[in-house]
Design brief:
Length: about 220
């Protein structure tokens, strides 16, 4: 998979890809992540990427020309499955969207800033708009990092244990059950006996019950979906 990220702040985005699972995925050539600084696609001396809003109003708007140059240049080199715009008014990110995106070959992620982008960018180029939650960030970069993490870990071969992504919270609309590790007893706090029984079908049943109970208590909306 190849991910091209278009941003005015590439420095804000680099560190999540330089550690742990994302770094391993890149080092193993399971994913390529390329950053494109929008200012490199400007034509004026000031490297302007934004301008005043037509009709008046506070806040600057990202201009279409540098974005067009960047996206058109990328499209001339390969076909993109999806061109995503990170915005609080997009579809709220969930596991289903991450699963779908992880199957793609090439995607572009455009990070918004200021008031957002000229509507004509959205009309002409964007195929999917994604929000990471109902709050406003100062730019799309952190949202793009969240999206990339959620997607990249699903690419086959990225996680050591192939099954572990499948037992994540949300993968089957259930939250994850409680988990424990050593020591067996800590300051009087015990680990549930069932986990030492060696009876794996019973352990699996217990985990499913706990997952269901936790979901019912914390996120009953997931059970209705
Ligand atoms: N840009 C600003 N806020 C955002 C959000 N909640 N999700 C994605 N991109 C954003």
């Amino acid at each position: 998979m190849r991910i091209d990220i278009i941003t005015v702040l590439p420095e804000l985005l680099s560190s999540p890809f330089e550690a742990s699972i994302l770094k391993r995925a890149i080092d193993a050539n399971l994913v390529e992540v390329h950053f494109h600084n929008l200012r490199d696609y400007t034509t004026d001396n000031y490297k302007s990427v934004d301008d005043y809003q037509f009709g008046g109003g506070a806040g600057m708007v990202m201009m279409i020309e540098p974005i067009d140059k960047c996206i058109s240049g990328l499209q001339a080199q390969r076909k993109y499955d999806e061109i995503i715009y990170m915005t609080p008014d997009g579809e709220r990110l969930n596991q289903g969207i991450a699963n779908q995106l992880s199957l793609h070959e090439n995607i572009i992620i455009l990070c918004g800033h200021y008031k957002g982008v000229d509507q004509r960018v959205r009309d002409k180029f964007i195929t999917k708009e994604i929000s990471i939650g109902d709050y406003v960030l100062s730019g799309g970069e952190l949202g793009a990092a969240v999206l990339c993490d959620a997607v990249i870990r699903l690419i086959p071969g990225v996680l050591g244990n192939e099954t572990s992504a499948l037992t994540d919270s949300f993968q089957d609309n259930l939250l994850a059950p409680p988990i424990y590790t050593r020591p067996r007893e800590y300051k009087g706090m015990q680990v549930p006996e069932i986990l030492f029984s060696g009876n794996f079908p019973e352990i699996e049943k217990w985990r499913e019950e706990q997952a269901y109970k936790r979901t019912q208590e914390r996120r009953p909306d997931l059970l209705e979906e």
